Amino acid sequence: MRYELYYWPSIQGRGEYVRLALEEAGADYADVARSERGMAAMMRMKETNNGTPPFAPPFLKAGKLVIGQTANILLYLGSRHGLAPKAEAGKLWAHQLQLTVADFVLEIHDTHHPLGPSLYYEDQRSPAKKRTGEFWKERVPKYLGYFERLVHHNGGFYLTGRRLTYVDLSLFQIVEGLRYAFPRRMKAFERGIPGLIDLHDRVASRPNIKTYLSSDRRIAFNEDGIFRRYKALDL
Amino acid sequence: MRYELYYWPSIQGRGEYVRLALEEAGADYADVARSERGMAAMMRMKETNNGTPPFAPPFLKAGKLVIGQTANILLYLGSRHGLAPKAEAGKLWAHQLQLTVADFVLEIHDTHHPLGPSLYYEDQRSPAKKRTGEFWKERVPKYLGYFERLVHHNGGFYLTGRRLTYVDLSLFQIVEGLRYAFPRRMKAFERGIPGLIDLHDRVASRPNIKTYLSSDRRIAFNEDGIFRRYKALDL
Fold first, then answer.
1. Interface confidence (ipTM) of the complex
2. What CATH number did the domain enclosing A192 receive?
3. Which residues 196-215 in chain A show a CB within 8 A of chain B?
4. What stretches of A3-161 show up as alpha helix (H) in DSSP?
5. Does one domain contain both B94 and B199?
6. How many Å apart are CA A50 and CA A55, to the nearest integer?
7. B45, B48, B80, B118: which to substitute to probe chain A, counting the most A Cβ within 10 Å?
8. How big is the CA angle at B54 (ends B49 and B60), to the nearest 5 degrees?
9. Residue of chain A with shortest Cα separation from B145
10. Residues B135 and B184 in one domain
């Protein structure tokens, strides 16, 4: 079965967590909205999709199923491609961690959009600065400290044990993104999270991920995505 | 089996979506942290829990399982108590909707905390006003408009069809909360979402929910929770 991924064509955004899972799994998929016709199809599905329209991209078409919400898509893919534990307890644990990553992603987005997603960054520079300060002082240590402790508990392997899950792929993306958006702050912070950095490096060197990252399927970071490099926020 | 719910004892917060599901199901549960000893137990579990500590309350103990993240808990309870469709497609659809509710809840929280959860409201009154304005102008119509269309599509019954799911209980709570926090704004807005208001009323009149709401197990709304009544934000 060829999956169809529907996501905004010019950013990594939330779609990237799905792309990384599909790529690691070596799954056959089309990144539909990267063509003009595909983009039109995405907007149509968002409108109706037979009474079950997704609220927002990304969504994944898997045969007749259309699955929305990033963590929900990963829950589905995880079971089918060996990217999550098989037993119920492990499956719920991985999903719980992914939902925590999702919360963190929203807070990352809010560093440049504290007054809400409907205004431009340029209209909220000053609150963005304030929020970013709090974010690095309180929230990054809280979230990344949590994940760092989990990696150590597992002896420096993957987050939930000796086998890679979609959560590891997502944490790779978090490290990549924070490095892009906040190069100065992240450089200083990284010393305190050696386990996560090591995890990041091991994910990056997996054959399928390595191939993906150097392909043109990987969109470059940019200032329309979730991780944005604004100099004023990285002081 | 007697469930144990762990959540902050003095607010509805995110725990309330779980409480509503447990109550509707007539499940046997203890709201553990509402005693002093229980509160201490919650803090201990947050620390270690045998290597799988939840990032934050709420979490639910079900036998040996400890499940964190509100939507994840509902995913688990939904299957066991007939509060979600049985088939995979329906289960994923309900979960997708719940994750959209979760995104909305975070945006509701950010109306009074646009600069982040680590500062007091009193330190961010002015950005809170601005964010709340945007919230009501752009975000409430987007989210509630979406759910309203879904209710209509289902002929005015429940959100996913003729049977109640945990998503309906959550939308009841959203309506209750918005009425509490923004009585003026919500009064005006409600005219545009008759389907959701009708859904709210039907949930409120279900026997188990009705009993729960008038019991002392239902904590009153207050200004430590997610829905806060600040006069300055309801103009």
1. 0.97
2. 1.20.1050.10
3. none
4. 15-25, 36-47, 70-80, 88-112, 125-134, 140-153
5. yes
6. 14
7. B118
8. 85
9. A55
10. yes
Give the pLDDT confidence of A168-190 residue by residue, as tens digits. Answer: 999 999 999 999 999 999 999 99
Of the three residues B54, B80, B106, the one that is the final residue of a domain is: B80
Q: Is B221 contained in some domain?
A: no
- The two tokens of residue A235 are 């002081």
Residue A51 lies in a domain: no
d(CA A214, nearest CA chain B) in Å:
32
Q: Which domain holds residue B104?
A: 88-206+228-233
Residue B216 C-alpha, separation from nearest chain A C-alpha, in angstroms: 30
C-alpha closest to that of A195 among A233, A144, A134: A144
- List C-alpha distances in Å: B199 to A46, A131, A190, B162, B202: 23, 37, 49, 12, 5
- The domain total for chain A is 1
Domain contains A92: yes
Taking the C-alpha atoms of residue A4 and residue A89, their distance in angstroms, rounded to an integer, is 29
Look up the CATH number of the domain holding residue B33: 3.40.30.10
Q: Is A154 inside any structural domain? A: yes
What's the length of chain B?
A: 235
Q: Note the pTM of the prediction, 2 decimals.
A: 0.97
Query: Percent of chain B, pLDDT > 70?
Result: 100
